[in-house]
Amino acid sequence: MQVRFWGVRGSVASPGRDTVVYGGNTACLELRLNGSDRVIIIDAGSGIRGLGAHLISSRSGQIEAEIFLTHTHWDHIMGFPFFDPIYRPNTRLKVYGPITYEDDTLDRIVGDQLSYRYFPVRHSELSAAISYHQLREGEMRFSDGLRIKTKYLNHSLLCLGYRFEFDGKVLCTGYDTEPFQNVFSDDPDSPGYDPVVCEEGAQAVADANAALLGFFDGADLLIHDAQYTLSEYAGGKSGWGHSPMEHAIATAQAAGVKKVVLFHHDPDRRDDELQALEDRFRAARQPHGAPEILVAREGMLLKV
Ligand SMILES: [Zn+2]
Ligand SMILES: [Zn+2]
After folding, report:
1. Ligand 2 centre and the CA of 16: distance in Å?
2. What's this model's pTM, rounded to 2 decimal places?
3. DSSP states of 144-172 as a string?
4. Measured in angstroms, how far is the CA atom of residue 284 from the centroid of ligand 2?
5. Separation of 69 CA from ligand 1 center, angstroms?
6. In the chain, which end has fewer C-beta atoms inside a 10 angstrom radius, N or C?
7. If one looks up domain 2-303 in CATH, what number appears?
8. What is the pLDDT of residues 136-175, one digit of tens each?
């Protein structure tokens, strides 16, 4: 497999002189399988615009692609109306994404971006053949040997981690997410303290965090949420749905991952800050068997 990073930023696109090195586009990954024409796209953030232009310029004839959305927060779907292949009749597109518990289905949530109140073209006017497929936790097997597993993460709406297995290699995504934490106080002096409920909560949290490690187990590459530093997270960002970088690295270590990519950068994180963090993490003494640590950059190509 190989993966190219077309967008690495979280929350909102952040172009400018302070983000030219690591990139300002929001989440979009292109996954290719060895010996296959298959085009797999993970998330449709603003980075998908460049990918669309690349697909059109590099492929004559029909474009067939599958988009796997981790979730439908705007930074992960905002690029969809600007994905040029949707305006071409020779495009066939399958869009996968998590079910929601809202009234609207995936096709409405993504497609309603293309309505006159937001955009000059309506979804019904698109030339491409587009189908939508809602996913739960589970597993899909395809005839070419690709296996995709999905797992709910810890975010403010249903968000899927993906595990792609092909030809003996494994690539996982773990974003947007943060560590599961016990919402029940363990302080006996706090109002409503209940030791039984607290203990049950702690066990549920331990089980959920262990299950996620199992999902990432032994991956060759893990692309993980790393929006904050540990001090930012401890200083008020806990509960915002994103992980500190240190947690991403510790998760990769605990799951026996070979390489971890820190992803979903905060829009305010400047290039010099990301470079300093990357240097610090890579220079730190790591235990035997620790994963290689990379900070995601727009345009980066990794072979798995
Ligand atoms: Zn996000
Ligand atoms: Zn999100």
Report:
1. 23
2. 0.95
3. TS-EEEEEE-SSSS--EEEEEEETTEEEE
4. 30
5. 11
6. C
7. 3.60.15.10
8. 999 999 999 999 999 999 999 999 999 999 999 999 999 9
